[in-house]
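INFO worker-7 received task bundle
INFO bundle size: 2
INFO processing item 0
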Amino acid sequence: KLAALRMMDGAANGAIAVSDLHSAGAVTASGRSIDLGSSGALSFADAKATAGNLRVIASGNLAFAKASATGSIAMTSSAGSLSATGPLSAGGAVNLFGATGLALGSLTSGGTTLINGGTGALTVASLTSPGAVTALGRSLDITSPGALTFSSIAANGGAARIATSGNLAIGDGTITGALTLASANGAINSTGTITAGGAVSLNGKTGLDFNRLNSGATTSLVSASGPIRITRLASAGLVTANGGSIDIGSAEGLSFATVDSPGNVSITAAGDLLFNTVSAGADLALNSTGGSLTA
C-alpha cells in the first residue's frame, strides 16, 4: 500500500491498466485511457482519460474529488458506496453503480446515463445528460440545470424527487414513497406508467402530460402557464388540479379538493366523482360514466 499514488507518465501518451490497485492515500491517474480494479477501497484526487474511456471497479468504497474522460465513464463499487464531491464529466455514456449508495455533486454525460445507488440513496446535485437516463436506488434526489429524459426511475425503499430547469420526460417509474417532479421553465410528460406508494406532486410550468399516473395518497397537479392532461389517473387521496386547461380521465372514482383553470376543464371517471371546489374560465365538462357526481 502506498501513502499516495500519482500515475502520470506511464500513461501521459498511453493507457493505464491495473488489475488490483491498493493505495492508503489519494490516487491521481492521467492517461489516454484508464482501467483500474481494486479488491479494496479507493479515493481519487483526480482521474483523467484524455483520449478514451475511464473505468474503475472496486470492492470497497469509491470516492472521487473529480474525474473526466473524453470517452465513456464506468465506475462500480460492488460492496460499498460511490461518491464524487467535484465534477464528473464524460464525452460518452456514463454507467455508475454504488452498492450501498451513490452521491454526486456534478455529473455531465455525453450520451446515455445509468446511475444506480443499489440499496442506498441516490443523489445528484447537478445532472446533465443529452441521452436517456435510468435512475435506481432506495430513494432518488436529482436536480438538473437543463432538460432530462428518463427511460425509467425506481425508488425501492423511499421517496423520489427530480427537479429540472428545462423539460422533464419520464418513461416508467415505480416509487415506494412520495414522488415530486418539478420543471421550473418547461413541461413534464410521461408516456408510460408512473406509480407512487405515497403522495404525488407534479409542477411543470408549461404543462403536464401523463399517460397513466397512480398515487398512493394525495395528488397535486400544477402548471402555471400550460395544460394539464392525465389520460388515466388513480389517486387514493384528494386531488388538486390547477392549470391553463385541465383534461383528466380515470378508470376509477376520484375526489377533488380543488379544480381551477382559466381555460377548459374536462374530467371523466368510471367511478364516483366528488368535487369540493371547481372553477373554469371556459367550457366545463364533468362526467361519471359508472357512478355518482357530487359537486
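INFO item 0 finished
INFO processing item 1
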Amino acid sequence: RARIDGETRLAPGVTALRDGSGEPTGCFLGRGLLGLFLFAPLPDLAAMKAAIRRGLGEAARCGLTSVQDPVPSFLLPFLAELHDADELTLRFHVWGGLTRGPFGGGVAETLALAREHARADWISFGTLKGGVDGMPSLRSAALLEPYADDPGARGASSSDPSRLAAAVREAHSAGLRVALHATGDAGVRAAIDAFLADPRPGLRDRVEHAFLLDAADIPRLAAAGTIVSVQPSFLARDLAQGGVYERRFGAERCAHVLPLRLLADAGVTLAFGTDFSLNALRRDAFPRHVETSS
C-alpha cells in the first residue's frame, strides 16, 4: 500500500528491517516513524476528530484534567474550536517538534501556532520535543556498554551531538524548554550534555523516560535542574513481556532501571506520566508501580 521497496529513501531516523534480498519486511524502527505517512495517506480527518472526542470522554472517566502531548498541527484548529464552543474538557500543553520534520516543527512554527491557537488556561505551548535514541525492547536504546543478549549491539543514537546542542540552544533562545526522549544510559548522557551546553535552569528541560541511567549522571541531572519524566507503568509491561529489561541489560545493570529513590535522594525533580497509548490512561496504577521501582 505504501509502495516502499529496497530503493525507497526513508525519512531521517527511520530504519527498515529487511529480508535476505534487501527488501523491507514492513517493520520499521526509529524516531522518525511519522515520516512514513509521506508514503501513505493520513487517517480521515473526521475519524480523527471523533477519536479526540472519545479520548476526552475517557480522560474524564479517569479523572484527568490535563495532558502534555505533541498534538499534530492540523488538529490544533479542532481543539481551539472545541474550546471556543465550551466543549473542551481537558487542558492541553502542546509540544512542538525540536527540529522540522515531515509535518512541521521547530521554533518558528511553534511560536506561530501558539499565537494562533493558544487559549488561556486550556491550550498552552512552551515545550519542544526531540529524540536521542529508541527503545530497549527493540535494542535501539543507546547504551554505554553492549546489550547483554546481543554483545555486538549498543543501540542507536538518532541525533548528532553538535546538531542536538544547536537545536537546544535555539529553543532556549526563544524561551522554550526542551524535552528529549532518551531511554538508554548513553542516550540520557547525550541529553544531559546537550542541556549543559546551554544551561538554562529556569526553563526546566526534561529527559523523557530515562529507563537506564549511569550512576555518574544522577548528580549531573540534579546540578542541571533537569526534570526526569518517568512512566512506572512500563515496569508492568516489562514483567508481562517476561523481564525484557533483564534480558537486554543483564541483572547488574537492572539495578539502575528507573532508580527513582536514587534520583529523588539526589534532588532530581521527578514527573510521572502514562505515555498513553502505550500504557493505560490510568492514575491509580502509579503508586503500586512507584513502590515497586523504589
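INFO item 1 finished
INFO post-check item 1: The chain is about 35% helix and 15% strand.
INFO post-check item 1: The first helix runs from residue 45 to 61.
INFO worker-7 idle
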